[in-house]
UniProtKB/TrEMBL annotation:
<dbReference type="InterPro" id="IPR025669">
    <property type="entry name" value="AAA_dom"/>
</dbReference>
<feature type="compositionally biased region" description="Polar residues">
    <location>
        <begin position="8"/>
        <end position="17"/>
    </location>
</feature>
<feature type="domain" description="AAA">
    <location>
        <begin position="46"/>
        <end position="223"/>
    </location>
</feature>
<dbReference type="Pfam" id="PF13614">
    <property type="entry name" value="AAA_31"/>
</dbReference>
<comment type="function">
    <text>May play a role in septum formation.</text>
</comment>
<dbReference type="InterPro" id="IPR027417">
    <property type="entry name" value="P-loop_NTPase"/>
</dbReference>
<dbReference type="InterPro" id="IPR050678">
    <property type="entry name" value="DNA_Partitioning_ATPase"/>
</dbReference>
<protein>
    <submittedName>
        <fullName>Cobyrinic acid ac-diamide synthase</fullName>
    </submittedName>
</protein>
<feature type="region of interest" description="Disordered">
    <location>
        <begin position="1"/>
        <end position="42"/>
    </location>
</feature>
<comment type="similarity">
    <text>Belongs to the ParA family.</text>
</comment>
Length: 303
């Protein structure tokens, strides 16, 4: 009995984690996860927009964690935060109070990208174009601007994005001009889909917007990737949703599914992605696998 209790105490000790705020810094080498091998470098910079007009489906979480995974494998990555909430900037530990030069000044005042891009402090090779609350006004201010749908593309063209392997654009939860700018500025669209009831609702509207952008503004745009997020393996519903999405979209859906994990939702409040906050957690391992899968698919494509 006593032995059993002692064993229980030991196992509790080894499995329990220190309080998050004092979490020890973990060497990045240790965080490289399951695929420590060299990750393929795309032949040229892949610009990927992460959009879904529904809020809370995992756009920002996906942007930040895929970006961190890729950067940890020696790829150069820029995250463009296009949501006035600035959640991606927060999660990357990047300042985004109103006085910080941000993507707002780029879109509205023609400020060059080089003036606003900063290094994310937690992960080498990872950079961020932050968003401030000023961006909330941009949706309206853009309406009267010349080439209002193409302002992000122009800004990216005027910036040396060739030095990046990936540019990931995190969108706000709407199909307004900010999201349209992201769709015009990218060649790929990644749609995160939450494994919940109503998961597919609104997707038709997003896909129609994509078709409009393709036919009028950006013929190169392609829905290249769908990622199932917040999967709860205990529910039949999650499995049903996953099956339905795969039935609709086939191979575009990544094989990796992101599980619901508390560590994923805790990480942003420490200005971190889950990849550095708790690299061994199920969420971090899954995002690592998803990023690897995405990187391999990109490498298969020919120019
Ligand atoms: N895999 C996950 N497990 C647990 N919580 C998650 C997961 N992915 C996202 N979340 C949480 O769900 C909420 C919405 O995610 P977020 O990425 O901000 O969505 P969006 O950018 O689409 O609005 C956030 O609080 C986030 O921390
Ligand atoms: Mg978001």
């Amino acid at each position: 009995m006593r032995e059993a209790l002692q064993n229980a105490a030991v196992s509790r000790e080894t499995t329990s984690r220190p309080p998050a705020a004092q979490a020890p810094r973990i060497s990045l080498e240790a965080t490289k996860g399951r695929s420590a091998k060299q990750w393929p470098k795309p032949p040229r910079c892949r610009v990927i927009t992460i959009a879904n007009q529904k809020g809370g489906v995992g756009k920002t979480t996906t942007s930040v964690n895929l970006a961190a995974s890729l950067a940890m494998h020696d790829l150069q990555v820029l995250v463009v935060d296009l949501d006035p909430q600035g959640n991606a900037s927060t999660a990357l530990g990047v300042d985004h109070h109103a006085d910080i030069p941000s993507i707002y000044e780029v879109l509205i005042e023609d400020r060059p990208m080089k003036d606003i891009v900063v290094a994310a402090p937690e992960v080498p090779n990872l950079y961020c174009a932050p968003a401030t609350l000023n961006l909330a006004g941009a949706e309206i201010e853009l309406v009267s601007k010349v080439a209002r749908e193409s302002r992000l593309r122009r800004a990216l063209e005027g910036y040396d994005i060739g030095r990046f392997d990936y540019v990931l654009i995190d969108c706000p939860p709407s199909l307004g001009l900010l999201t349209v700018n992201a769709l015009v500025g990218a060649e790929e669209l990644l749609i995160p889909i939450q494994c919940e009831y109503y998961a597919l609702e609104g997707l038709g509207q997003l896909l129609r917007t994509v078709e409009l952008v393709k036919s009028h503004l950006n013929p190169k745009l392609e829905v290249s990737t769908i990622l199932l997020t917040m999967y709860d393996a205990r529910t039949r519903l999650a499995a049903q949703v996953a099956e339905e999405v795969r039935g609709h979209f086939g191979d575009v859906v990544l094989k990796t599914v992101i599980p619901r994990s508390v560590r994923v939702s805790e990480a942003p409040s420490y200005g971190q992605s889950v990849m550095t906050y708790d690299p061994g957690s199920s969420g971090a391992l899954a995002y690592g696998d998803a990023a690897f899968e995405m990187a391999c698919r990109g490498a298969e494509k020919t120019e």
